[in-house]
């Protein structure tokens, strides 16, 4: 049943987008977390999306055609990478964590970029919800067939 | 006379199945709208349905009139997944155009409803004929 796969695909999309939203929230929350040590500073995190490939031949049990087995189905987050953009070094001698020279290091979080990313992630999430609703309507229609 | 569902339902059953498959492909495109290097795909509905219908009319497999004839195995048709040509390719190699895909998905859903409506009326007609009341 192909429609059941739509639920799986949309579900995978939703979980991936929520991970993306999570990293954005983490980045924004830590945007002002300064540190005196360059190794301890928070770095912006971003998820890496990848298309998932599923072997569809296992479902091919009848004369009805199924999708070719190289059809990509759904997506997943393969990992979360830390940004290697340069850290922000500020001269704040009054800061609690200032080093001997009076400098503190701020995370390399680009707040504007993160806000744009947040909107993109929530829109994509909404698209996935829309997909699931449509598939649900189609399936409910099929259940009423012949009535 | 026995009712042959294959003859009674006609093209609509196949159409409904192809519509669900297309919904799956389009849903996959939409989900991968943010995946780098993903290439949007689609099925050619017309060619798939015509091949479905021809395999149906050919009676699936060959007719053996002699005991030494080898019957050709009926093979299920694999729908060909084509790649979409984007209007404007993006920098990360992704060819999904979210708005276009969404409109295609909605249209596919409406077509599904249409096929469903036609199939449903076929069933209604059959049950009316069985009961004999109008």
Q: In terms of per-residue confidence, which ranges of chain A show pLDDT below 50 for 5 or more consecutive residues?
A: 56-65
Strand content range of chain B: under 5%
Helix content bin of chain A: 40-55%
| Lateral strand order in the biggest sheet of chain B | 1-2
Topology:
The complex is a heterodimer of chains A (147) and B (134).
Chain A lengths: L1 H28 L15 E9 L18 E11 L5 E4 L11 E4 L4 H33 L4
Chain B lengths: L4 H5 L1 H21 L9 E3 L1 H13 L23 E3 L14 H34 L3
Antiparallel strand pairs in B: 1-2
Description of the structure:
The complex is a heterodimer of chains A (147) and B (134). In chain A, the strands form two sheets. In chain A, strands 1-2 form a two-stranded antiparallel ribbon. In chain A, strands 3-4 form a two-stranded antiparallel sheet. Chain A folds into two domains: 3-31 and 45-82 and 109-145, no CATH class; 32-44 and 85-108, no CATH class. Residues 56-65 of chain A have low confidence and may be disordered. Chain A is built from two helices and four strands; from the N terminus they run αββββα. The two termini of chain A are 21 Å apart. Chain A is α+β, with helices and mostly antiparallel strands and 147 residues long. With 134 residues, chain B is mostly helical. Chain B contains four helices and two strands, in the order H-H-E-H-E-H. In chain B, strands 1-2 form a two-stranded antiparallel ribbon. In chain B, helix 2 runs antiparallel to helix 3 (45-57) and helix 2 packs antiparallel against helix 4 (98-131). Chain B is flat. Chain A: Its main location: other. Chain A: It comes from marine gamma proteobacterium HTCC2143. Chain A: One of its GO terms (biological process) is bacterial-type flagellum-dependent swarming motility.
């Amino acid at each position: 049943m192909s429609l059941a796969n739509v639920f799986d695909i949309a579900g995978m999309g939703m979980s991936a987008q929520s991970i993306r939203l999570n990293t954005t929230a983490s980045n924004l929350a830590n945007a002002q977390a300064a540190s005196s040590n360059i190794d301890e500073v928070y770095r912006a995190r971003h998820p890496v999306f990848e298309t998932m490939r599923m072997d569809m031949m296992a479902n091919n049990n009848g004369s009805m055609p199924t999708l070719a087995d190289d059809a990509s189905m759904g997506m997943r987050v393969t990992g979360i990478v830390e940004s290697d953009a340069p850290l922000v070094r500020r001269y704040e001698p009054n800061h609690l964590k200032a080093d001997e020279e009076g400098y503190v290091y701020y995370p390399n979080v680009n707040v504007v970029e993160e806000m744009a990313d947040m909107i993109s992630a929530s829109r994509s999430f909404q698209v996935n919800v829309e997909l699931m609703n449509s598939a649900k309507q189609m399936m409910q229609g099929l259940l009423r067939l012949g009535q | 006379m026995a009712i042959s569902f294959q003859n009674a339902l006609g093209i609509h059953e196949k159409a409904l199945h192809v519509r669900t498959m297309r919904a799956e492909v389009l849903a996959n495109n939409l989900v991968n709208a943010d995946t780098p290097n993903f290439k949007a795909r689609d099925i050619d509905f017309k060619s798939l349905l015509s091949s479905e219908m021809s395999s149906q009319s050919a009676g699936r497999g060959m007719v053996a009139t002699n005991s030494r004839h080898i019957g050709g195995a009926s093979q299920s048709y694999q729908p060909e997944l084509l790649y979409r040509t984007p209007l404007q390719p993006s920098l990360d190699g992704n060819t999904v155009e979210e708005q276009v895909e969404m409109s295609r998905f909605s249209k596919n859903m409406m077509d599904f409803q249409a096929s469903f409506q036609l199939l449903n009326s076929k069933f209604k007609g059959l049950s009316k004929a069985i009961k004999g009341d109008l």
